[in-house]
Amino acid sequence: MKYVYLISCLVCVFVPFSDGEWMMRNEANFASAFKEREHEMHKVFDSPLIHDLIEKERSYPLTAETLMTEERFAMKVLEDSDTIYSQLEGEVLARCLADIGTYLGNLSDGASYAWQMRTSGGSFGRLATIAYTWRLEYPGIYELCIDTKKKHPEAPFETIYCTEHLPLDDNIFVSKGRCLPASCTDEDLYIIFNTIFAVIGLEFWIGSFYTCIRDVPWEWDAIFVACLLGVFGLIVALGTFYDIAYRRRRLCAASTSIELQTKTPKSEEKNDDVESNEKLDANGGSDVPMKHQSKQQLYMTSEEETELETNQTETKVQTPRPSVGRLETLISSCSAIYTADKILSAKKSASSLACLNGIRVLSMFWIIWGHCNNFIIYQRLDNLKYLVEDVVNRYWFNSTLFASYSVDTFFVLSGLLVTYLTLKELQARNGKMNWPLYYIHRFWRLTPAYMMTIAFFTSLKVHIGTGADKVEIAGYESEPCREYWWTNLLYINNLYPFPGILGGCAGWSWYLANDMQFFIISPLFILLLFHRKTSKVGVVSVWLVCLASCIVTAFLTGYYGVPLGKSITYYNDRLAELEPDGSNSDIIYGKPYCRIQSYMVGMFVGYMLYRHFHMKKINMHWMTCTVSWFFAIGIMYTLLYALHPTGGREEPLPQWFSAVWGGVCRTLWSMGVAWVAFACCTGRGGLINSFLSWSFWTPMARLTYGAYLLHPIIIFGFLRTKKILFHWTYPEMVMFTCGSVVLSYIAALLLSIFIEGPTMGLEKAILRKKK
């Protein structure tokens, strides 16, 4: 019978209990993450112990007499109750112990409330069946558990839903839902049940621990963040009321008065409009000095720069508006209606850079799709074996496995826009620029929303939703933020602590640190590119930095033996020997000296666009253009799909090839993206440009920054509070991703209205000139 108990306790799935670092570690290589997961599961189910248990399991039919059901467990506990109580004597858990004893006794007697508790718990199946599915968890029915007292007033106690983690070895556990008395703490359950397991002979269950879903107490930091959000909400509410009750009416009356005073005959007005439109068409919508812009418009982030280019035409023909004071500028920016109107406007413009909106938004969709698939392999999935052995090995799934190239697309766009618009402004101002304001605006534009996201991630997310995983893992993930939040504020979280894990606090924020660091050094290259005497030096400098980044990346890839493609076997143990994070250390993916190559490619294309529109138009033979399109599409296709066979190779590819590929792959991808951007901006994109310049992308492009900040929180908020298992199918994943996209952009809109609007309004009010 003892062996039957062993079989029954192992008829389950073995789940590596997350240490909280996998999200940061595996974002760097989605393909490696999926193959690592497959390797972990094979290691468990291909072991001699499991094979032996499965063979012996066949001689024990699944009947009430041979399974360690909850009822039989209760009977065994009651039989040995004297021994159990004697061993627990003196422990400060009398209430919990009494309630558990009452529950087990009533379950044995067939009490209705006890059977509801038992039914709401998870149930194991055969080990052989689980070996074919790799089902990770056996959750019960949360609502059925917590509703016990309501449905059965005679129940002697309130109930709480818990997850029982049963150990197989040091870091592999079995997980199962259980409904238990609410009087028990996690520590009480650990002591009581491990004592019971030892007494009744379930040695393999000794070491089990419990995580129960209960309300998390509000700490001072959570209260502070909630109050801060409330203050911003109040400010926006007051700003919106002012906008509706006073500002819009005053502007409407003033505009009417101005139109009556400056009214011209219709024929004259029509001729002026035609002349204006002809001028715009002749210059591609971008060859007009930017003297009409305010200072704060000169130092924008990528999202703002795209918005500026998209709306330039509209700005030129607007009806004059009455001047407003600093206070009214601030109050207006706090209006939800005012901010939403600016963001959601999708008016068609003559901007030559409108295609960048489509590239930006589609890349964000790709990132969210990749994260949804990558994150779910460590969450509540009931067909993991099908996903990592079947779906992952399909040819077209490589676009998901190598979705990290989408981040290089963002670097290209960022370098392109910073270079192009800064050069354009330098020309309009005869080479003069307020460089302190250049940096101040960038920092102020990004940081408030960024810091509020981290504050929410650290303090408030644990109070939203209900789930056993959320409380435990969220607490672990909050620790780096509590200790190193200041590195995010200074945008050095990809460098300190060194080498560290990817991103440190809020792992996906590594991108923001890199982008800010590249922005800080960008004037060194832009000034060289602007002056005619040094422009060639500037171009050479850009490509030298790009080449140096490729060499450094190739060296680090080779030195640390980083595997290529879907392979998970490192060529040496140098990375595992790093302190203190070992193989979790980020030595390549998030480091600026390895990622600047894409930004440099973007800077070069930005310079070429500036020359095309503001110096000398770049002519290109149609054959050259066609070959460039084939090269760009071909190289990007190759980077996505050439490594498809690496997952099934018994022998890894040569280490030198892995190093070279790792060094140049991101530059090659960036060159492909750069050509698409250049061709579409200069009228060589055809239908592709028409699609990418579609006005539908315009408002979404303005929200991309917020969507990037918030989408991991939304994905994890769903997965870690999900009370049933997720079944991977293409329709399920498409719906999950679409839902994540929609919610991410809605959250980004709220972030813009409540945080970015007031903070940007404050900057405008401070920096605007008096009239």
Q: How would you characterize the overall build of this protein?
A:
With 771 residues, the chain is mainly α. The protein folds into two domains: 2-212, no CATH class; 355-767, no CATH class. It is 64% helix and 3% strand. The chain has 32 helices and four strands. The protein has helices at residues 2-10, 22-27, 30-45, 48-57, 70-79, 81-87, 94-109, 112-119, 127-133, 142-146, 148-151, 186-200, 220-261, 266-282, 302-316, 326-333, 336-344, 355-376, 384-391, 398-401, 405-428, 435-460, 468-489, 510-530, 535-559, 592-614, 622-641, 655-681, 686-692, 697-702, 704-719, 730-767; strands spanning 15-16, 159-167, 172-181, 209-212. It has a four-stranded antiparallel sheet with strand order 1-3-2-4, sandwiched between helices. Strand 2 and strand 3 (172-181) form a beta hairpin. Helix 18 crosses helix 29 (686-692) and helix 31 (704-719) packs across helix 32 (730-767). The longest helix is centred in the N-terminal third of the chain and has 42 residues, at 220-261.
SSE inventory with pairings:
Elements: H1 2-10, E1 15-16, H2 22-27, H3 30-45, H4 48-57, H5 70-79, H6 81-87, H7 94-109, H8 112-119, H9 127-133, H10 142-146, H11 148-151, E2 159-167, E3 172-181, H12 186-200, E4 209-212, H13 220-261, H14 266-282, H15 302-316, H16 326-333, H17 336-344, H18 355-376, H19 384-391, H20 398-401, H21 405-428, H22 435-460, H23 468-489, H24 510-530, H25 535-559, H26 592-614, H27 622-641, H28 655-681, H29 686-692, H30 697-702, H31 704-719, H32 730-767
Antiparallel strand pairs: 1-3, 2-3, 2-4
